[in-house]
Amino acid sequence: MVPAAGSVRARYLVYFQYLGTEFNGVAAVRGSQRAIGVQNYLEEAAKRLNSVVPVKFTISSRTDAGVHALSNAAHLDIQRRSGQPPFSPEVLAEALNGHLRHPAIRVLQAFRVPSDFHARHAATSRTYLYRLATGCQRPDQLSVFERNRCWALRADCLDVDAMQEAAQHLLGTHDFSAFQSAGSPATSSVRTLRRASVSPDLGSPFVLPQENRLQFWNLEFESQSFLYRQVRRMTAVLVAVGLGALRPAQVRVILESRDPLGRHQTRVAPACGLFLKSVQYGSPGGNPACVQWESQDPGGFTPWRHREPPGARDTLGPATGPCPALHAMEARRDQHLTT
Predict the structure, then answer these.
(1) Which segments of the chain are extended strands (E)?
(2) Taking the model in full, what pTM does it have?
(3) What is the dihedral of CA 32, 37, 39, 43, to 10 degrees?
(4) Which of 198, 202, 262, 199 is nearest to 235 (CA)?
(5) I need a labelling partner for 137 at 20 to 30 A (CA). Which of 29, 147, 232, 324 fits?
(6) Catalytic residue of the set 64, 77, 116, 161
(7) Any catalytic annotation for residue 259?
């Protein structure tokens, strides 16, 4: 479709979250299949924005069926009709939430970014959280509010010290072929794991006091990028260490084997316990196509600044707190969305 003369295309960075239980992953499922992805719902909501050209979400981080996201990211372009100004980021986020047709998806925030910004390529860090529960002898012993939110283990305890020791062997730059599942599109299996931690959770608010046999644990992994199912396979190996099936030193042997079909590395942790926690962007070399971020909590992000050529205005604005012009924005919203 040829853009209308005089129309302006605006690119946005959008953060969104979802419970992945009912989705076939985040990526859109095309065709007549019954499966559907989070992206399908986002793009369906974006149709209501009346862009001159169809709106396509370019997702930063793909997640599998059943995997959740506290905060994923995507960029999208919106081209309004000639004479109409671009949507403000606040209006865009509010409009997408208003048009979303699935309660398990929520847009967190939106920001204007340069036209060459790429949500996947520009990401400098991704952090995944994996949640474990111990002391769950039967599935019905887990709170209904925690089902599909963690991996429930029958064991009463884990050797967390051994898991932490094993995790140290994974840190740094390595060939992670041993933790890669078949079907990965990556051309190289070398990755740099910046952080791998195992820590007790303070406790789920959805567990009753009399259910104190249940304990929760958090595993976190940070890297610029991960291989297909790398986090779930690393988690499975660390859990094996915590259960005494592996010694910490064996994790290094597995890593150095580069064999994804070995006895222990074929185990994959369930998707239900995995959360994409955050995606961060930096500005290496002053590249104006990047946005700097500092993660403050799983659902809130504060942008530092958006670097543009000298003299250009900052297009990001504050990321937290109410917009000072909120009432005026709401008064203009209907006109923005129906023209």
Answers:
(1) 9-18, 58-59, 68-79, 105-113, 123-134, 151-152, 172-175, 190-200, 215-223, 274-281, 291-297, 300-306
(2) 0.82
(3) 40
(4) 198
(5) 232
(6) 64
(7) no
